[in-house]
Amino acid sequence: MIEDTDRLRAEARAEILKALAHPTRVYIVDLIQREGPYCVCQLTERIGADTSTVSRHLTVLKSAGILKDRKEGTTVYYSLGCDCINDFMTGLESLLRARHLRDTRRFDAVIQR
User: Fold this and answer.
1) What angle do CA 18, 23, 24 make, to 5 degrees?
2) Are the CB atoms for 70 and 76 separated by under 8 Å?
3) Which residues partner with 79 through β-bridges?
4) Between the CA of residue 96 and those of 91, 108, 109, what are the distances in Å?
């Protein structure tokens, strides 16, 4: 049986992973990581979605602690909530490369038969 602390840790981790479980949200995080803070209007233009959709994505990311916001006049800018996101995204890229290599080897093995 899972201990309470382990269950709570797993639930907290799952909440963050759920927040990232949408391609648009991953794109937003990656964009902000690479280029710095963005406001909703800039993201709306960049993504090609309506403002309400982008705002919902930002709310999910902010609630999970992945993004934070700051207000300048009437404009709200979003930035990374933690510098560790860079390491997380780098880890994801390493996993994608390893998966691609594994799949390529399997494919090559099938073709050579």
Assistant:
1) 100
2) yes
3) 68
4) 9, 18, 20
Distance CA 73, CA 38 (A): 14
User: How many CB atoms sit inside 10 A of residue 113's CB?
Assistant: 4
Residues in Cβ contact with 21 at an 8 Å cutoff, skipping those fewer than 6 apart: none
Handedness of CA 12, 17, 20, 26 (dihedral sign): positive
Structure letter (DSSP) for residue 67: E
pLDDT digits (tens, 9 = 90+) for 48-99: 999 999 999 999 999 999 999 999 999 999 999 998 999 999 999 999 999 9
Tokens at 40, concatenated: 């909703």
